[in-house]
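thread: overnight batch results

M.L. [08:02]
morning all. the overnight job finished for the chain we discussed friday. pasting input first so we're all looking at the same thing
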Amino acid sequence: MGRRYTVGRTFVAMLKDRGGNFGMMAALATPLILAAGGVAIDMAGMMTAKNQMQDAADAAALAAASSLVSKDPPTIAKAKEIAAAFLKTQTGGSAVDSPGANDQSGTSSAAKTGLPEASTASQPTIDIIESSNGPTGKAYNVTVLNKQTFQFNALTRLLGKSSIDIETRATAESATESKNALSMYLVLDRSGSMAWKTNTKDTTKTSCPNYTESNWSKYPNLKATSPCYVTKVDALKTAVSDLLKQLKTADPNTLYVRTAAVSYNSAQDTAGNLDWGTAGTSTYVNALVATGGTASGNAFKTAYSRVTATTEDAAHKAKNGQVPTKYIVFMTDGDNNNTSDDTTTLAWCDTARKNNVQVYTVAFMAPDRGKSLLKACATTEANYFQAEEASDLIAAFKAIGEKASAMATRLTK
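M.L. [08:03]
and the structure it wrote out:
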């Protein structure tokens, strides 16, 4: 009886004794604590791996897209190889080495590739979609899908999962040059004041009759003097030649650009017909001779009517499939002889603006009234140019040419 009492009391005492509970709880919690630490380490590793993978995929996609619009573009199959090789280079080595595997030098392959130790990269997926970009251009969409299996460390595996798949995607777009179809009509002043000299010396001649406003009454019998200065009409020819050269460079096969010109003095001259390329316009402008007064109204009206004719849209549709951008380049060096011509010109400028015709104006050594007319006529303030020297005129026409012949080429990441 006494013995049973002793055993029972001992058992009750053991139940009441809480001294060993901490050890039991610690034993149970330790795996969870270790697993939590492992997860923290692996989370950092996964973020590093994903960032590296994204950078590599971005670079590979852009490399392939760039190659396809280079001077000597590869085939699509070759472009895929370029992307794959670039991806391999970006990761520093083979994309299929097992993590932790060592070569004969004792260095792990993961360390050599730059990937985290606990990762295995798989073969990427590279897709390239080709589409048309205008009548002759091509556009490309390159997608690189980069995959990697991230192996958890031993501590994280205590939670029952050994790995996780990481995936990144990158897209790059590129396109071959696609030129904008355009129709451009030049409205050019060839009045007598265009025979006056500029401040630019003509180094090709030793002397010439240097006409100015003060001696214009002696035309055409003014005595030659030295040095010889470039006339305004010759500066205009140089400026137009530069503009046309830019258009020709942008459209060497005459598939997109149509041009023409009309000159005026006290009346409109015979207008040129819009045609492919720049040759006809160049011939027309180079034949200009400066004489007479100034009346721009009818010439601007003719330019507007020609450039907006339905036949112009039809010509482009048949050859390049585009609706062309319409341009009028209007230049003068003086005032209209009658203010009624200012009114007529401005009315047609407003009509052009309302019908999406881009009007560029150039006031060349012009008086205030001429400048005011051209400022009001320009489609926007940025479309107005004021030239006080021959070099200014050439720069103005060059700027217009650059804007008009701008080619749409895009390469985005």
